[in-house]
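Human:
I keep going back and forth on a fold encoding question. Comparing notes only helps if you start from a blank page. Show me how you would write down a chain together with its backbone fold. Write it directly below this note and I will take it from there.

Assistant:
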Amino acid sequence: MTTIPAGGRRKDLDGLVALVTGGASGMGLEHARLMAARGARVAITDVSGLALEQAQERIVAEGGVVLPLIADNQSVGNARRAVADAERAFGRVDILVNNAGVSGKALPVADIDEAAFDRMFGTHVKGAFFFTQAVVPGMKERRFGRIINISSNFAMSGSAGASHYTGAKAALHGLTRAWAVEFAPWTITVNTVAPGLVETPLTLDSLGADEVARRAAQFPLGRIARADEVAFAVAWLAGPEAAMMTGQVVSPNGGISIIGI
């Protein structure tokens, strides 16, 4: 795991409260660490109590304030309860990062069963929808909010064997645009961050080290992104410098989308 660079510790999120779904590991943990370093109090959700405990220890050791919450993104009740717990502990939620995600092995359409489809759309789309639904009333009341959906470069290109993943991530782009318009009167911005391949345990587990290296060689910049490099884009969208950004897709993907792979 990376060390937070000195520039990551500026306090432009001081006094704000962030909720990061899937925030106990991988990219989600990097989002939470960076926002905590920049002054936000952070609530993180995950299905693993052990992962939450380890993430909490890491963020606290770095001087952050964190609330770990057990929540399954596929459960509407879990989403509502997690938001209520965060609001009870911190008074509000100003920033929502819909990060929780799952992947899986490549499968042709004929081999994707209902359970795999429901898991993919339930985690990425249903979870993002109902976490957003739960935080928006408070954001409207305060006339301020930042919602950031974590998508993927796959949502902007075709890939055989990934139709359920690609479809779920692409759905987040549609939600981003619709919500950006709907919530704009309350100064709530909604954006998507769509990275390419990122160094995370999930990436290595699903692809294997050899395949990750092979794909990294195709990137114009010659490597895949670190999770903290994606986190900088997310933290920027959450901060004051991105006040006029809404309904947009930001792609820290090493240039892979330029060459159409």
Summary: The first strand starts at residue 17 and ends at 20. The chain has one domain: 11-246. The chain has eight helices and nine strands. The domain at 11-246 is CATH 3.40.50.720 (Rossmann fold).
